[in-house]
Amino acid sequence: MSKLDEAKERLGLLKFWLGVIVGSFLANIGWLATNYKQADILILVGSIVVIFGLIISFFIVNKKIEKNLKNIGDLK
Asked: Theoretical Cys-Cys bridge with 54: which of 13, 14, 25, 37, CB 3.0 to 4.6 Å?
C-alpha cells in the first residue's frame, strides 16, 4: 500500500471517529435536555463531564484530521 493510500485510509478512519464523537455528543445533550429534572445529581454531573470530554476529543481528532490533510497534500 502506498503512503498516499495509507494516509487516505487514516483520514477516513479519523472522519469515522469524528462522526462517532459528534453523534455521542448530540445524544448526550439530548438526554440531558430531556432528563435534567428527574435524573440524580451524580448522573447529571457525569453527563456534563462526558460532554466536556467529547468536546476535547472533538478538537483533538479535528487537529489530527488537519494534520493528515496537510500530509496528504504534501504526498501528492
From this structure: 25
